[in-house]
Amino acid sequence: MDYLLGLINNAVGNEQAARLLFVGAIGLSALLAAVTLVMLIQGLQDPVQRRLSLLKRGHGELAHGEPPPSNLQLMLEQVGQRFSSAEEGKVSATRTLLTHAGYRSPSAPQVYWAVRLLLPLLLIGVAFLGLPLIPKLSLLVGVLLVGSAAAVGWLLPAIYVDKRKQARMGRLRAAFPDALDLMVVCVESGLALPQAMERVAEEMTVSQPELAEELALVNVEIRAGIPSTEALKHLADRTGLEDVQGLVSLLAQSIRFGTSVADTLRIYAEEFRDRRTQAAEEMAAKIGTKLVFPLIFCLWPSFFLVAIGPVIIGILRTFGKL
């Protein structure tokens, strides 16, 4: 307390005004914390409010075996509702990002923005608690530390979601050729496209569960009455892969004009296999350039130290005797 009071006194230049500001800040913080705690307790314990929250998030009736949302999840959804897109029927960039990362829940954008809002506040509080432990800390350095904590808290969820998105898209891209080969075999054996996708999803459930889930979802949408072309477009939107979008366009044209789906899948599988080979060759060609920096900063200093070090020591000993 004395440390924070000293910082405010150095900034204001008046001890009495600094004490008033300090007491006012503590009182306001305590009042806001108490009001927030009371509202959260009332909102989470009231069954009517909980039921209304479930209805707002689209969980009026929970699916069989689906666990009910926790109080923490409902609280995060309520906090993040102010930041999520309010336009109905329009997919926001946040929802697209979360869908590509594997979060398809209707409340995912609310939880995402709530975490991005609350995490900086939490890290700011931790920074304020840690400032007295740093000796001889100036006001400017303290402000920079608090600002850095807030920036880290704001950017960390976005970085995590982006990394998860890249990893998921990489796994889908790696599993896509095998799924194409299996679909070609299923279609040539006489199965229709939805049944072929269902069979491939069953076969890839263990090895590639994410792609199997996406294919099974396409089959569910087709059974629900959605046209095949629309269900395939939804698949391309959920995955975010250009390869899947190209396949969807080819399959849509094949279904529209009545051409052979098996021939379309076989041709695209060959093209995709060639494209994957070219991507691997491109990555292999970049290895030489990428190895330059580890060689310069890691290997060459050690080499020069071993090769030239004894010579330099001998020269210093020789001139030292003179």
UniProtKB/TrEMBL annotation:
Domain spans labelled Type II secretion system protein GspF: 180-307
Main location, first listed in the record: membrane
Keyword Ion transport: no
Subcellular location: Cell membrane
Cited Pfam families: T2SSF
A single Gene Ontology CC term: plasma membrane
Membrane topology: Multi-pass membrane protein
Keyword Membrane attributed: yes
TM regions (residue ranges): 20-41, 113-134, 140-161, 291-316
Keywords: Cell membrane, Membrane, Transmembrane, Transmembrane helix
Stated name of the protein: Tight adherence protein C
Species this protein is from: Pseudomonas indica
